[in-house]
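Regression report. Comparing outputs from two consecutive submissions.

Submission 1:
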Amino acid sequence: MLKLQQVLGVMRKMRSEIELSEPQFGELTDLFGISSLVIDNEGAISSINDTAADMLGFKVQELLGTLLMRLVVDGDRALSHLLHQGSKSSSFEPFDLVLHGRSGRKSAVFVVPVPIDQVDGVACSIMLMLTEKAKRQASSHTLQHSELELQHFANRLIVAHEVELKRVSSELHDGIGQVLAMIKFMVEDASRRLKQGKVQEGAHILDETVQRLRDAMDDVRRLSSELRPSTLDDLGLLPTVEGHCRKYEDAYDNIKLERHLNVAEAEIPAHLKSEIFRIIQEAMNNAAKHACASTVAVSMLSDHGNLILGVQDNGVGFDTKQFTGGHVSQQGIGLRSMRERAESTGGFFAIKSSPGSGTTVEVRWKLHSVVMRGTANGMQSN
């Protein structure tokens, strides 16, 4: 029904601006994959497009001049009412018909009548746009399913966002908040000692306070970098990934880290860079915290119009089926977050793992597709 409304809107606009012949109307609806035919006041078919003729199993020329009523199995009263109303009105109500084709196959259709030739406000010819009910129901079911999937997707994004906010809140409270509370206490203690004339003790406490402030500033920089590294904007994705890999090696000296970044910075669309970095960050974090891996390999390459990202480890692995249901652990939220980041940017996400065989995360983007998507959102690649 949505497609019919779109076509009707286009046709009304075109009809108000240019003159279209009946065959041209048919060609227009053919472009949208919609069956259409035109009948005169007697109900004879004066024009029919290829889509409608194919539905009935005829060639276009075989149906020209045929009374539509001869093809009606059920709904003849509604058609008769339309023909009677056509000589007196310029607006019509949709109705149902059952038509039979050459082979005897019956097609139940939903009919939307549109007046196309009018004299003094009365229709001389009427276009009938036909939608097979089976296809209409299937389209409706698909649309409902898509809306449900979109709602689930939005809900998962909200959950992932809330988890990230809780993590940041915890970092601020347990990390920076505690350090600032300690600094406040130390400054108050130093002030009290200075007022008591204990200058050396007060100066020593202030020296320690300066170090605590440096620690707090480091925590702020670290948290800021985790939210969005400034190097993404200043230097680009590849230097940011390289910098993250160096920090990773310092933090996990028991893990051998391999990187194969065989792609040029200019080949990576700008609106993908943040999402790619987050996926790499999450996958590497999972390998260190959950997989007990001794080797992690990060790869990125451009191949035949595809941008391919991979993160592979030799850890303990897991059963991927446990994350397809309602079970949500911290690791499960991370995996879903990666999938949603990939799919929301037009990528194809895949994860391969089984107990004892390690884990491979792979995301593929069609570069032309994501560039077009980014451009449509007002963004351009570097």
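Submission 2:
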Amino acid sequence: MKRFALTHCTYFDADDQEHHEQAVIVSHQRIEQILPMSELPEGLDCVDCSGQLLTPGFIDIQVNGGGGVMFNNQPTLAGLEAIRRGHWSGGTTAMLPTLITDSDAIMSQAVDAVAQAIEQLPGILGIHLEGPHLNLEKRGVHAADKVRLLADFSEQLLQCLPPERYLITVAPECLPAGTIARWVARGIRVSAGHTLADYAQIQQALAEGLACFTHLYNAMTPMASREPGVVGAALEDEQTYCGLIVDGIHLHPAVAKLAVRTKPTGKMLLVTDAMAVVGSSVNSFELYGETIYAVDGRCAKADGTLAGSALDMASAVRHCVHTLELALPEALRMASLYPAQFLGLADQYARLASTYRADLVLLDADLCVQKTWVAGELVYSKA
């Protein structure tokens, strides 16, 4: 890759100080140097950023689909390529493709596809298996006939990739005692979701190493005065992470604000829970043979059950700033640095600093994506 510079950039440093008229030199897929425009060497190819905001690329740990494709429907390398491309316009440069509860055969195909993608498609970091070991009563859009108890197949499937490449969402109350601890000891990240667990059951899961809560508030027991439930346990615990779908549909702004204020800084992750419509001209998709429509940004079954989202990460950042009234640097970290930290990748991703991956997003004054780079390659430019 030819060495080049992004010029006339604005960016936030680690102390939230805003810097203007900066240049970012990119070489060999990484950031080589950041320096004032006045110190930029001559002879470099340049991309003029016109004073707009340059930020680390977004990292999404819950992506069911995009670019017109559902991962469940196309668990192949080509499917992952379409999904990855569909999210570039929303600033996502790295992701965990997410497989909703499905058959053993589809799960096996999905893991095989991700194994190939890790080697061939920059930005595919691993796989998020959302199910199948969920609570039937909190399954949401997950197919009832595919939700099932732990069996040998799942244990075998979790051996196919390096353990750090897996995130698995489970209902802790539906697993045998010690299962989470065994997975965590191997290096697998385990999240609680689609669960009817009570506070005590979540405390046991936390003791075994539970690391995260999938789309906080949604598909889990709420917090009440005498039973804190999953939500109460999630907000009380200082070590775990929580995914938040900030689309103005899944959460009332008040409960989203409460979660962000309650949890220690760095533990809230923006996720999209995106479906096939994101980054696509289509407004419907198939899931388990049923057509799901996206109407006014809301993806739902005919009976009204929410079915993921039509959200991209840049939109989630805008919602955080305009609706939750978060400072822009913090909203950007929720979309980039904190997910990188959760995945153990913060030494390579999500910082504008020398030696870090050149996964970059250029935002205009309205926080809309103008350009996206993955490993230094320009992959999206707004027409």
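Expected: both submissions complete independently.
Actual: both completed, but the second showed a warning that disappeared on reload.
Relevant detail on submission 2: The domain at 57-342 is CATH 3.20.20.140 (TIM Barrel).
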